[in-house]
């Protein structure tokens, strides 16, 4: 984090097998000053995390081959300390318990709300990297 608590230096990885969902999340996050990487699969996300400096990852739960939860677990097994948020249409108590046991920061139910996404991202980054100032826009 830079000295002003700006969001400009934070890089967020968004992983979802649905292109429009990835782009929608990107369109919520980038105007707040964050940089993003997009991945279409868990495998692609793992590759990006190994090659780039990522500060936070958002994973869709339901993806082919690797679920978002499995992707998160594989990243953490590689000794990469990365705050992760799961997004899912099936936010059951069992999934919430599994996500918390896998050290996910939060689970956001679909359809996602811009306010909830930004609030959760800011809180997760603040918890892991220190306090952030309020994002650029007024959340609508």
UniProtKB/TrEMBL annotation:
Phosphoprotein is among the record's keywords: yes
PTM sites of type 4-aspartylphosphate: 60
Superkingdom of the organism of origin: Bacteria
One of the GO BP terms on file: phosphorelay signal transduction system
Listed CDD domains: REC
InterPro entries: Bact_response_regulator (IPR050595), CheY-like_superfamily (IPR011006), Sig_transdc_resp-reg_receiver (IPR001789)
Domain Response regulatory: 11-125
Keywords of this entry: Phosphoprotein
Keyword Signal: no
Protein's name in the database: Response regulatory domain-containing protein
Organism from which the protein derives: Tuwongella immobilis
